[in-house]
Amino acid sequence: MTKLTVNNEAVEYLLDPATPLLWALRDASNLTGTKYGCGTGACGACTVDVDGRAVRSCQSTIAEVEGSFVTTIEGLSRDRAHPVQLAFLADNVVQCGFCIPGIVMAAAVLIKNDRDPSEAKIRAAISNICRCGIYPRLVEAIQKAARAARGDETLTAGARPGIDPSEAAKSVPALSPR
């Protein structure tokens, strides 16, 4: 049995120790924000924070990270108030959104370890693949997040994305088949 701390909660996985961390997080812990992309570690959709390192969870087994502290996108900030999340919203970085959790996690690890990363460091640290091509907005958003993390800039969440279901739909009697 493999023990980890996932999003500040102790977890003991009753899985084969060779199970990739990605599948333990997604299937056993129901943390589906960590995405399966390529399965080879090339795309970065599965990136999580393991003890302050950006790790491709599809390439790490739970045995390899036993005893570690793992943070997923769900554990980064429940209210989307992490500087990276706020900067991505402010700069309208997100397009389809599939790659975003992995990119956010890689960026969060970067600015946790380097509060003033250069453009070159950002480009080196964020090797994630985005099929939508968000790269032109990415560097500035991460620099903005770093400034906010240092306290040099203030970012606000603005309106929460989404629709309040109580204002968007109501139950009605079922229709009869024609």
Automatic annotation (TrEMBL):
CDD domains to which the protein is assigned, alphabetical: fer2
Keywords: 2Fe-2S, Iron, Iron-sulfur, Metal-binding, Oxidoreductase
Source species, domain of life: Bacteria
Disordered: annotated segments: 153-178
PANTHER family: BLR6218 PROTEIN, OXIDOREDUCTASE WITH IRON-SULFUR SUBUNIT
An example molecular function term from Gene Ontology annotations: oxidoreductase activity
Organism: Sphingomonas jeddahensis
Domain 2Fe-2S ferredoxin-type, first and last residues per copy: 1-76
Designated name of the protein: Isoquinoline 1-oxidoreductase subunit alpha
